[in-house]
Each structure stands twice: as structure tokens, then as C-alpha cells.
């Protein structure tokens, strides 16, 4: 059965989904439709993760991307406590 997960996540979640899909023998496509979000490309130090409809998986340890914490702090509601 082909695997075609739906993804509406941040760049961090998207890279996580890509790593998961890459480990699946029956991966077909990762659905994505969120590039119109103004901060999406600024949330990680690695800009423009999607090029020509494709994502090259990073080979660095972990997920291979770095959260820009300043951008994340500015775009998160203060009362949620994510950075406490």
C-alpha cells in the first residue's frame, strides 16, 4: 500500500516527516501546502528547504535543521509557555 502522509507542519516537523518517509519502503509522496505562511522559511537557519517541489534530506546528526529560536519566540503566543 503506498504511503502518502498529509503534512501541515513547521519546517522542523516537515523534515521529521521526510526522515520518517525516507525510512518507509512504500513511501509515495508527502503532501504539503503551507509555503504561503510568512514565517515558514525563517523558522530554521536552513532557508528554502523546499526546492522545485523536493526536499534534500540533511545528513547532519538529528533532524539536520536548526530552529531559529528568536523567530520562534516572536511568533509564539506568550501565554503558551513553550520557552519556560
UniProtKB/TrEMBL annotation:
Residues in a coiled coil are none
Protein name in the entry: Enolase C-terminal domain-containing protein
- Enolase C-terminal domain location, by residue? 1-71
Amino acid at each position: 500500500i503506498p504511503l502518502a502522509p498529509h503534512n501541515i507542519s513547521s519546517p522542523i516537523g516537515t523534515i521529521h516527516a521526510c526522515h520518517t518517509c525516507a525510512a518507509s519502503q512504500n513511501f509515495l509522496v508527502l503532501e504539503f501546502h503551507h509555503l504561503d505562511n510568512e514565517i515558514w522559511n525563517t523558522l530554521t537557519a536552513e532557508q528554502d528547504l523546499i526546492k522545485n517541489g523536493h526536499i534534500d534530506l540533511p545528513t547532519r546528526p538529528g533532524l539536520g535543521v536548526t530552529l531559529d529560536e528568536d523567530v520562534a519566540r516572536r511568533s509564539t503566543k506568550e501565554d503558551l509557555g513553550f520557552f519556560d
